[in-house]
């Protein structure tokens, strides 16, 4: 586990890699999340200073986009599409089943740290909805039974 000095040093490397790049805030946040699995709140002042914006602006951008996490995810990440096409194909039903089965709400992780449930908004797989992203792999035509099998494989 990295301590705050290690985290600050890694963020400095990321900031240096984006020096002189206009509109680098989102790429920086993506790089930070790629490095740590989430965006630690303690690095936002460092990023804000580098980008010459307020801490509130950095925080606002980070929390606006659902892809950025404020805390580490579980071992497995299950993202269920919440956009319109998937909703018309039964995504609400599957999402309710997932929440009940896992005992989670969106952005929560099971107590054993194994599964994080997150919403996602369109995977470009609308014709095969309801769609999901399971540890980065796209899954289509999701049903409650298919979801149960996926969850079983994660446990
Ligand atoms: S709406 Fe779900 S993949 Fe497009």
Bound molecules: FE2/S2 (inorganic) cluster
- Please count the helical segments: 7
Order of helices and strands: HHHHEHHEEEEH
Mean pLDDT metric: 94
| Percent of residues in beta strands | 5-15%
Order of adjacent strands in the largest pleated sheet: 2-3-1-4-5
Which percent range fits the helix content?
40-55%
Distance between the termini: 23 Å
Structural class, please?
Answer: alpha+beta
Low-confidence stretches: none
* Rough outline: elongated
Major sheet details? 5 strands, mixed
For the secondary structure, the number of strands is 5
Taking Cα atoms only, what radius of gyration do you get, to the nearest Å?
A: 17 Å
Structure description:
The chain has about 160 residues and is of the alpha+beta class. It is about 45% helix and about 15% strand. It is built from seven helices and five strands; from the N terminus they run ααααβααββββα. Strands 2-3-1-4-5 form a five-stranded mixed beta sheet. A hairpin with a 2-residue loop joins β4 and β5 (about 135-140). α1 packs antiparallel against α2 and α3 (about 45-50) crosses α4 (about 55-65). The protein is elongated, with a radius of gyration of 17 Å. The protein starts with a helix and ends with a helix. The model has no long low-confidence stretch (mean pLDDT about 95). FE2/S2 (inorganic) cluster binds near residues 83, 122 and 129.
């Amino acid at each position: 586990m990295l301590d705050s000095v290690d985290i600050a040093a890694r963020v400095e490397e990321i900031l240096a890699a984006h020096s002189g790049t206009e509109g680098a805030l989102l790429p920086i946040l993506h790089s930070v999340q790629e490095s740590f699995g989430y965006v630690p709140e303690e690095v936002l002042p460092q990023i804000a200073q580098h980008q010459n914006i307020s801490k509130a602006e950095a925080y606002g951008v980070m929390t606006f986009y659902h892809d950025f996490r404020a805390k580490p995810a579980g071992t497995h990440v299950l993202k269920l599409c919440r956009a319109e096409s998937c909703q018309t194909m039964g995504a609400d039903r599957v999402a309710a089943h997932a929440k009940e089965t896992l005992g989670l709400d969106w952005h929560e992780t099971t107590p054993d740290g194994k599964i994080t449930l997150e919403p996602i908004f369109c995977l470009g797989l609308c014709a095969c909805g309801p769609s999901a992203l399971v540890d980065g792999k796209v899954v289509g035509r999701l049903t409650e039974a298919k979801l149960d099998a996926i969850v079983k494989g994660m446990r």
